[in-house]
Structures are given as structure tokens and as C-alpha cells.
Design brief:
- This protein is of the alpha/beta class.
- Helices cover 31% and strands 25% of the residues.
- The protein has helices at residues 20-29, 73-77, 87-95, 184-195, 204-219, 232-245, 263-274, 285-291, 298-317, 332-338, 375-384, 389-392, 412-431, 484-497, and strands spanning 9-14, 33-38, 51-56, 82-85, 99-115, 130-143, 149-153, 161-164, 169-172, 223-228, 249-255, 279-283, 323-327, 365-367, 440-454, 457-470, 478-479, 501-506.
- Strands 2-1-3-4-9-8-7-5-6 form a 9-stranded mixed β-sheet, sandwiched between helices. It has a 5-stranded parallel β-sheet with strand order 12-11-10-13-14, sandwiched between helices.
């Protein structure tokens, strides 16, 4: 998390929720600075007039377990407003004598909450005394703690919102930080400005300055190598590093052979000529395809790619004296899917090559200045850093590249086929001016051959899957609804232009339940 010692802040205590950083994001959007800390680090919090409020996050644990976390008395001694969300709501209630039990019915997804009494926390939140919210829990508060009153209820949660107005303690069973909760941002806004009375002191320029300062403090006089991919994340990291440490930065661009068509040429042109960065180019396409031969398991693919990345970085770092750090464009959604950012008990979904895919032992320390940010925040930061538009608006591209868009065994033939299909799909999106309306779009090659008829002859070729999603932050996503003409045009171009594909399908699942990438 970005650190700043000199401005008013909200402290978010992380109990392992998948949505913890969404809370911080909403707070940043409202012009307020926040820091996330692990629930085990509460005692390290120094009492400060700059801490204006505490938010307790949700989490995967159950409060009914004897070994579950409890609310530290240290937090109470700070004598500042507290907002508990989901699991945080339950531990807040339990701390003050309320009771929590396992509900007979679980609540996962949309639910209706009804207003029961007025409160500062719910001002302007309800429309006609009802609201649609996003629940994700099994435990419920079954008895109200002393000094608290019931503010709102749902069919399954009698105490969906509770408040102790005198002490300024509030508990919310649902998740106001997710976009699925109507007016959820209003609840957070009420807590910040009406209850905590915090000032708006946070903006993009200040964020950039603090990120640069954090890099300087961590790196000091040492040199850094930056893993450059050509995407917006690594590009923003490279520009931040350049501003922070100047010529102590060397970018290393590895061609894995799993990049998009012509990508290696575009990266070298943009970063060497336009941005004037010092780059070492490594063509490692043969070694990557060799190491991935006959590997089917997606986690193994990620581990192999991550390990080989580091081996190559360390090999070339030895040629540069005083290199101690490896910089990466890791974002918060990567950390959420791979591990929790603070070390709290969060569920692992999949490894990312720059998170869970890295080997345990490395000779380089990591610098990940974007690890508390989301993609759209990184784009805004890139704009502040004057990143060229063609780099700024590029769709996300995974670190393992096409390896995770080819389920099953990877071969050079499959890579070549997929590069062509993906190139056609992307070009058609740009021609029809749909590219910038879509969060991420790509083609994948399924490990499935089907029978077709071309020129009165039988074909037996691969199936190409197209995927395009809209999203705000990559945490949730919906598929994009193309019209029939677009589908027909793209399908015809791919089948007529790419040898090896005779069928095109479109993925219409959202996230959740699916992830955006296939593997």
C-alpha cells in the first residue's frame, strides 16, 4: 500500500476479504487517503491525530470458530469512528456483547435491505426505504450489542446495518464497496465526511509524488531492472522508476515467443525511440516453448514461465553492477487472485507469473509500486506521467502471454495460429471503433478439433474462442454484446485467413463465475 505520513487518513484493517482494496479504491475516488494493514499488525498502529477513522474489512473466516479473529481493544482506545463491513460487522457486534451465529440460509448475491430507523450512515442511501445490496455471508448477528440500534434489515439478516451513534461505531452486513450495491458509495461517503469529518486531500498528482517518493526510499542508491512487457502496467512502472531513479534503471524486455503478433517490434520502437528508456532485448522464444512442451496444467505453465523469467533477469542483472531490485507491473487484482496483499487469510484463485508464479528464492528484491492500484487507476496515472495514448489504452495482456490462451499442450504451430486469429479480432475491434469501449478482448485456441467443410472438402481443425468483456476494475466483468454483423465478419475473416481454424465461438460468461482469462 502507498504510504504517506503527513496527511489525514482512514485505516482499513484487512481480515482477508477479496474486496478490501475496493474499499480503499472508493475512498481514493472520494478524494481521501487510506492505508490497508493486516489485522495482526493492529498493535503497531501509532496513535495519531491524522487517523480519522477505522474500517474493518470482510473476510473468509467464520466468527463462530473458536480460533477466529477478535477486535483488538487497542482499536477501541483510539476513540475514533469505526465502520465494520461483513466479517468486520460481526466482530464489532461480538466485541460489544452482541451474538453471532451461523444462519440457516446463506446470502450470496443480491438482496433487498429495508430501512428501520434513521442514521447518519444511511443519509440519502435508501430510495423509498428499500435498497438492493450485495451480500456474501453465512454468519449473522443474532443479538444486538448494548448501545447499538437496528438501522436496516434484510429477509435473512435482521441486523443488516447497526449503529452506536454516540460512540460513532457502525456495522454493515453487506458490501457497500462493490458496484452491485446500489448507492454503496454514499454509505462510505457518509462515514468519511459526516462521521469522521475527514478532509479531501488526495488526488492523482499527490499519488504520483508519493509513489515516486516510496520508490526512492526503498531503492536508495541501488540499481533496478524493470520487467518490461509493453503493456500499460509495466510502462507506467518504467516511467515512475525513471522519474525516481533516472539512469539507475535498466529495462529488460524478454520475447517469450508468446507475445501478440509483431509486439516485440512495437515495444522496442515505443520504449527506445519515444520514451528514451535503456532496454536490454532478449529473444528467449525457443527456450520458453521448449520448457512448456507437453505441459497441460495451467498452474505448472505459470510456474515455469515465472521461474524462467527470473532466471533470465538474474543472469542479465549480473552484467550490471549493483542491481538489487526487480520492478514489476503487478496490480491489486493480480494479488487478490494469487494471495492477499497484507498476508490476511484470503482465498487463492490462481497464480500470476509475477506473484504466485515467482520462485521462492530470488537474488533480487521486488519493487511493485502499482500493487495497490486497479487498471483504470493505472491508466489515469499513466496519463499524469504523459504516457503515449497508444500505450495508455492498450487492453490488458497477461504476463504468461498466449500460454494461458492455449489450454492444453503448447506448440509453435498453435502459437502461430493464435497470433493470426488474435490479430484479426483486435484489428476488427479498432476498425469498428469498439476497441476503447471494451475492457479486454482476445482470441484463444481451444484444445478441440472439429469437422468442417471448406471447398467441398472435409476439414478437421481447431476451434477459436473469442472473448470480450466490459469492466471497471477487473474484479467483476460482463461479456460485451456484439451485433450479428460483427460476429459474422470476424468469424469469416478468421476462418478464411487462418489455416488451422474452422470454427469460431464466443464466450458469454461473466466474472464471476469465470475469470477473464481462461487459465
Amino acid at each position: 500500500m502507498i504510504k504517506n505520513k503527513f496527511i489525514e487518513k482512514i485505516i482499513i484493517i484487512d481480515y482477508g476479504s477479496q474486496f478490501t482494496q475496493l474499499i480503499a479504491r472508493k475512498i481514493r475516488e472520494l478524494g481521501v487517503y487510506s492505508e490497508i494493514i493486516n489485522f495482526n499488525q493492529i498493535e503497531n498502529l501509532k496513535k495519531s491525530h491524522l487517523i480519522k477513522g477505522i474500517i474493518l474489512s470482510g473476510g473468509p473466516l467464520t466468527i463462530t470458530n473458536k480460533n477466529s479473529s477478535s477486535l483488538s481493544s487497542y482499536i477501541i482506545k483510539l476513540n475514533i469512528p469505526i465502520l465494520g463491513i461483513c466479517y468486520g460487522h460481526q466482530i464489532l457486534a461480538k466485541k460489544f456483547g452482541g451474538k453471532v451465529k451461523i444462519s440457516k440460509k446463506r446470502e450470496f448475491g443480491h438482496a433487498i435491505v429495508k430501512s428501520k430507523s434513521k442514521s447518519t450512515i444511511t443519509k440519502n442511501f435508501f430510495k423509498k426505504k428499500n435498497n438492493t445490496v450485495w451480500m456474501s455471508h453465512q454468519d449473522i448477528v443474532s443479538k444486538l450489542p448494548a448501545g447499538f440500534k437496528k438501522i436496516a434489515s434484510s429477509n435473512n439478516s435482521k441486523y443488516a446495518i447497526i449503529a452506536n451513534e454516540k460512540r460513532e461505531y457502525y456495522g454493515i452486513q453487506f458490501h457497500p464497496e462493490v458496484s452491485h450495491t446500489q448507492n454503496g458509495k454514499i454509505l462510505i461517503k457518509n462515514f468519511l465526511f459526516s462521521i469522521c469529518k475527514i478532509k479531501k486531500t488526495w488526488n492523482l498528482k499527490r499519488q504520483k509524488e508519493i509513489l515516486i517518493l516510496n520508490i526512492k526510499e526503498k531503492v536508495k542508491n541501488n540499481k533496478v531492472i524493470c520487467a518490461l512487457s509493453g503493456g500499460v502496467d509495466s510502462s507506467v512502472v518504467a516511467l515512475l522508476l525513471k522519474k525516481a531513479i533516472g539512469n539507475k534503471l535498466t529495462c529488460i524486455f524478454i520475447n517469450t515467443g508468446l507475445l501478440r503478433k509483431n509486439e516485440e517490434h512495437e515495444v522496442l520502437k515505443n520504449f527506445k525511440k519515444k520514451l528514451k528508456l535503456k532496454i536490454i532485448y532478449i529473444d528467449a522464444s525457443k527456450i520458453f516453448t521448449k520448457r512448456l512442451k507437453n505441459i497441460v496444467n495451467p498452474e505448472k505453465k505459470r510456474k515455469i514461465i515465472g521461474k524462467l523469467f527470473i532466471q533470465l533477469f538474474e543472469k542479465h542483472a549480473k552484467k550490471i553492477r549493483k542491481v538489487k531490485f526487480l520492478a514489476q507491473g503487478t496490480l491489486y487484482p493480480d494479488l487478490i487472485e494469487s494471495k492477499t496483499v497484507t498476508g490476511s487469510p484470503s482465498s487463492k484463485i490462481k497464480s500470476h507469473h509475477n506473484v504466485g508464479g515467482l520462485p521462492k528464492k530470488m537474488n533480487l528484491s521486488l519493487v511493485e509500486p502499482l500493487s495497490s492500484l486497479f487498471k483504470d487507476e493505472v491508466r489515469k496515472l499513466g496519463q499524469e506521467l504523459s504516457l503515449p495514448k497508444e500505450l495508455l489504452l492498450r487492453h490488458p495482456f497477461p504476463g504468461p502471454g498466449l500460454a494461458i490462451r492455449i489450454p492444453g499442450k503448447i506448440t509453435i504451430e498453435k502459437i502461430d495460429i493464435l497470433k493470426e486469429a488474435d490479430f484479426i479480432f483486435t484489428n476488427e475491434l479498432k476498425k469498428t471503433r469498439l476497441y476503447n469501449k471494451i475492457w479486454q478482448a482476445y482470441a484463444a485456441l481451444l484444445p478441440l478439433k472439429t469437422v468442417g467443410v471448406m471447398g467441398d472438402k472435409r476439414t478437421y481443425e481447431y476451434t477459436c474462442l473469442l472473448r470480450a468483456v466490459t469492466s471497471e476494475d477487473g474484479m467483476t466483468a460482463d461479456f460485451y454484446s456484439f451485433d450479428k454483423n460483427f460476429f459474422q465478419n470476424v468469424s469469416n475473416k478468421i476462418i478464411n485467413s487462418v489455416n488451422g481454424i474452422n470454427r469460431v465461438v464466443y464466450d458469454i460468461t461473466s466474472k464471476p463465475p469465470s475469470t477473464i482469462e481462461l487459465e
